[in-house]
Structure formats: C-alpha cells, structure tokens
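batch job 7 of whatever, protein = Sulfotransferase
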Amino acid sequence: MRRIFVVGCPRSGTTLLQSFLAAHPDIHSFPETHVFHRLRAPRGLRRAAGLAAAGATQRLDDAAGWLGVPRARPLLPTVRRHGAAFLAMADAAARKHGAGAWVEKTPANLYALDLIERLVPGALVVHIVRDGADVVASLCAVAGNWGTTYSVDTAIDQWTECIAITDRYRGRERHSVVGYDRLVRDPEGTLTELCAALGLPYTEAMITGREAAARDLVKDFEHWKSDNAGPLRDGAGRRLDEVFDGATRRYVRERVAAVPVREVGSGG
C-alpha cells in the first residue's frame, strides 16, 4: 500500500493537488483528518510517557467516519498505537475502493513530518509551494471562516516558516515538491513527473476527474474550498489585488521577495 501525504502552508493549493491525485483510479483519498499533527501531547509527563494527546481517540473516531470504515481504537493510548490504528483504517478504506494507494491531506502535517516518517512505513510526502503574496492574501481573507484572524505579518511569518520546513526536506528520499503555479498552468506535465516520483502511472483521468474528486473531499462547511470543484483557473496575483489596498500590496510583495524560494517542479 502506498501512503501519500500532501502538505504545505494553508491556502497553498493542497486541496487542488489532492483532488488531482484522488482522481487517479489507483488512489483513494478522503477529507482532512488532522490525526498526525495533533497526535503528540504537549510537553510534560504525558508526552514523556509516549501517550497520545487528549482528544486523539476522538479524532480517530472522526477519521473512521470520513474513511467509511469501522473505527479502530488502540488498547493502549500511545502515539504509536494511535498511528497504527489510523494506518489500519486508511489501508482498509483504500482496499475497499480497490485502490493500492491513499492520500491524506492535512496541511499542518508539515509540522509533524518527523512523526509521520517514524510511524508510517514508506511514507511518501508531497509538498506544494505557492507564491507568498497570494498565500498571505488568501489567509487573511478566509481566516474568519476558521474562527480566527490573521494579520498581514502573521500570515507572512507562517508562509515563511512553511517554506523553510519544505526546504529542509527538499531532496530527501520520498519527498517531492510541486509548484502551485506550474500545476495550474501545466497540470499534465507536472502530474506526469509527480506520478513517476510516486511510483504510479500518469493517467488522463487525473485531469478529467479532478472536479468530481474535489466534491468528495471537501466537507459541507468548508465553503472556502468550493473553487476546487470548479474549472481550473490561473489566478496568480488576483487574490492579492482583491484583498489589499495598494500600500499593503507593496508591503506584502517586499517582505515576500526577501524570502528565498527555490524553483519547484515535482521533484526535489
């Protein structure tokens, strides 16, 4: 079973990439589970003992619902047992749909890659990177839907941090990096290269079936992701113009330009 994780800064196109992959006939995917990045307990006795964070079992139960399989509850509430329980459910869901691979897409798993690599044998990780100005504008525009707010500086800092994490993993075995803009402008070329890195054959169904796949991946309340179920659009710079005034646009561009971002394709 191939186990694939899509990660990146929120609003970087993780759902779009997931939708392309989910349309592959040998890949099964499902809505975000938030299992791994919330699996470890905060520092303290619970973490020192290897126990999972409070609420981890409930997240497994929720994941079982999204996966459409019987829930798996570990006998011991450890991080390792919870990870194994999730893998058993995800593998079962993929087999149920006749797939030899599955994709888990929770952007914040970017912060738990060390844990994923320890708990998931052969984990394949796909990072997606998007222009920082567009990410910042989108974060500021949709954060209210998440019950929070982003200042411009907070959004820039988060994007910068995510880029730095991806750069630390770039070039490692089983890690691929996809550029959002290239994915939108040349989906066939980008996905062909990515499939080769994942050990899967490229198929045109990844493009023709993307919109339908997206509708199965977005939860009812996640209306900020609704564009993923529509036609593919190259909107580089559009979000920035929609959200900010001229002075703020200039400030965002200046700060983002100071962050070194390596050219990305679908390889390392």
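notes: The chain has a mean pLDDT of 90.
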